[in-house]
Amino acid sequence: MSRCLSSAPGIVIAIDGPSGSGKSSVSREVARRLGLHYLDTGAMYRALTWWVSEQAIDLSDHSRLAEAARTFPLELSLDPDERHVRVGGTDVTEDIRGEVVTSAVSAVAADPGVRRGLIETQRRLMDDSRVNGTGIVAEGRDITTVVARDADVRVLLTASAAERQRRRLAEAGEATARTMAARDAADAKVNEFMTAAPGVSLVDTTSLGFDEVVEEVLRLVDAARE
Ligand code: DC
Questions:
Q1: Where are the alpha helices (DSSP H) in 87-132?
Q2: By alpha-carbon position, which residue is closest to atom 18 of ligand 1?
Q3: Which residues have C-beta atoms less than 6 Å from ligand 1?
Q4: Nearest ligand 1 atom, CA 140
Q5: CA-CA distance, 205 to 209, in Å (whole number)?
Q6: 60-90: per-residue pLDDT in tens?
Q7: Residue 29 class from Cβ within 10 Å (0-12 exposed, 13-18 middle, 19+ buried)?
Q8: pLDDT tens digits, residue range 159-198?
Q9: What is the pTM of this model?
Q10: Cβ atoms 92, 84 nearer than 8 A
Q11: What's the CA gap between 58 and 116, in Å, rounded?
């Protein structure tokens, strides 16, 4: 009798790390190679920040922020080859990477009610992918430690501060690289993402190329499946 693969639970892979660690591009590529869904939790914080600004919600209004996090009309593609993000029918894929959202997102992400709301949605999306057999790679700064502590594979990507700054400069130019370094410092107050929690595999990418990092994560996935 042939085995029905779709009835087996899908694998859940959680990847976190600071900016410049390669977390997003590596996570996306691992999802592509394994045919899994891809969840960019940072995009959710960014999309909510766009909505909060659009709706003129005051950052000191914690109850409205929490409600927005639970109910805002987000459409996020889980296809690693399809990047689109929509909020209330507006395509915000480009806007959420822009300066306005980037400079405000840390403050929104620091709100406890916002985190509770988005984490609930993240867990639901991950669970759906697990249950329907597709599986998922989820990335974000609290994925291995808070959101998906029970993921099948948990990986923290790091790189030396100098190497992360070099990558940011190469990707984004000097002004953006400075903003990103400042944002990392602000986010570090919310999430400890430079040391691996128990059960999380640390991959130091400082002297590895992109393909080598992807291969290393795929090795960890193979080891977890054995
Ligand atoms: O990874 P990114 O730069 O797209 O993240 C955007 C912001 O959201 C950044 O300030 C970190 C924050 N964030 C978070 O607090 N928790 C996550 N799981 C993902 C992102």
A1: 99-109, 112-131
A2: 140
A3: 19, 41-42, 45-46, 105-106, 109, 140-143, 183, 187, 190
A4: 18
A5: 8
A6: 999 999 999 999 999 999 999 998 999 999 9
A7: buried
A8: 888 888 888 888 777 667 777 777 777 666 444 556 788 8
A9: 0.90
A10: no
A11: 18
